[in-house]
Amino acid sequence: MELFQMLAWGPDGWADELAEGTWLTVRLALATLPFGLAIGLLVALAKNSGEKSLETAANIYTTIFRGLPELLTLFIVYYGGQMALQKVVGLFTDTYVEVNGFVAGMVALGLVFSAFASEVFASAFKGIPAGQGEAAKALGMTRWQAFRLVTLPQLVRLSIGGLSNLWLVLLKETSLVSVIALNDLLRNTNVAVGSTKQPLFFYSVALLIYLVLSLISSKGLGAIEAYVKRGEERRA
Amino acid sequence: MSDTTAGMIEARKPPPQARRRWGVARIAGVALCVLWALLGVALVVSLLTGYDADVFSRYMPRMLEGLWVTAKLVVLSVTVGGLLALPVALARMSHNFLVSKLAFAYVYAFRGTPLLGQVFLLYYGAGQFVDQLQAAGLWWFFRDAYNCVLLTFILNTAAYQAEIFKTAIESIPRGQWEAASSLGLHKSHTFRKIILPQALITALRPLGNEFILMVKSSAVASIVTVFDLMGATKLAFSRTYDFNVYMWAAIIYLMIVETLRRVWAVLERRLTRHLER
User: How many separate domains does chain B show?
Assistant: First the structure.
């Protein structure tokens, strides 16, 4: 019973801190998503361009950011970004600048997300027969029209499954930003544990919140998938 | 002989090779390749000019020891987790309502929450029960952060691998079960000799991915004071503020992951060579 009193809202309990942390976790994941998707799509287009040099450049990108541990990428972006920024600013003034943790987290998670997303998009591109592009050309469509009207709708349908998985991974990976002093759900839980000495209870609550977030996401993504695939015939 | 070919149309020459044009794609591609090359050169220059023999000789051995800890953590957790995963996968497919729901809850809980949170829960959570664990004679195990991390990793990867095994086993057509049954084979025999060997081949690729994911996720161990490769790197950075140590670590991790990926691809091609047409 005492344990649950610690979950009260307000200065006596920790519910508001946990809620704030959850909100930051969700915001970070949502902010990373468009950025990661856009770069992922560009990298996939490069991989599919048929131009050797462009393909090589894109493959180097994926190899690096798919192979590095997320935590290491985060540290490199955070500390490396800090040092680089300090150097650039140091050329002009003596003021101390600090890299925003949220932006560093967003960039690091976005790099990793886009590397994996580019693989999903690239294999989705392979699932669209080349004849469709030729047919679009024969109908007099420009390349942009063919991409927008023919390729893109199918690309969404073919990649939604893989992207859903990546979103769930991203949601969990946001927990890593707690180590660069960003007040996400896990870090606020650490603070709560530090002052109440109840690790088992508070970490269980935090994990439960992550679980609920995953649950809500997979329900939502399932609905989106059903919507974009509404034109497909149902297989028994 | 010669007059049979006389009336024929001469064979046409192949069209000349299309000359590759300098379009937008090519310019962008070459520019990006040059950019990567410059970044690579910058990295090498920074590693060479920033090379500090003192830092190197003091911390490189530590990082290599850390690499050994990472290797132990990953190999142990993936193999033990794999052994644990098969029964969980079978429980997941069991017709017993309670058993299958329990296995589902286990898999869902571990796959739906962040690994770092699981590590915290087990490591700090165990610290809350020192007396009980001492009474049970288990405290020696939970006292060490390495053991707690290892246990968390095992439980985590077992959940992921159980899902891989389940998908693989379910991908084997039902006709195989029926054929074996009509030949009078027992169910357990069918599973061991017919279903499992085929399922393992399907599972090969996702298992390789899981192995690589574990190498990367194992860096999380460094947050609870385990000196794996990442932990040793963090220590070196916090003492020297030499950013190059992160670059060394990045190179080591990339080399491991790329080697694993390639070795796994060769292994897979070798093991599935009878399936090629």
Answer: 1
